[in-house]
Amino acid sequence: MGAHISIPMYQRAVPQRYRLAGQKCLKCGKVNFPPKAVCKYCLTGAEFEEIQLSGRGIVYSYTVIAGGGAPPEFSEEARCKGKYPVVLVELEEGPRVIAQLVNPPAEGITIGMKVEAVFRKIYEEEGVIRYGFKFRPATSDS
Predict the structure, then answer these.
(1) Which helix (H) or strand (E) holds 20?
(2) Cα–Cα separations (whole angstroms), residue 62 to 4, 76, 82
(3) Where would one find coiled-coil regions in this protein (predicted)?
(4) CATH number, domain at 65?
(5) pTM recorded for the entire structure
(6) 22, 43, 73, 99: which has the highest count of C-beta atoms within 10 A?
(7) pLDDT in tens, 1-43
């Protein structure tokens, strides 16, 4: 198993993984996600306001991962599905995040496609199911 994340480290990340909690830098106004100790944009801001991200965005880029290229924690999923899409999403608030795309459209994934975050099981490690966000194509009213 690669990319081991201890239970305490995982629990510290629950707000961002479960609620998409970001932080707005009080110095430059940019939104950091995941949260940082120092703003990754201005590199000097260290005071933040917690904000709730909408979970809405567009596909900035994407790839399809097959069994041989899957990280160890996703090897079971790769065996079950054969391959799965991963997207780089530019959120409405600005940050870009990487996550799996669920329910990809039959006509294929496109750059600029509207997506929305959904809460899903990510993987299981040490007998603990790790939950977090994935994305799906946005419904027409999003």
Answers:
(1) none
(2) 24, 21, 17
(3) none
(4) 2.40.50
(5) 0.76
(6) 22
(7) 345 555 555 555 555 565 788 999 999 999 999 888 999 999 9
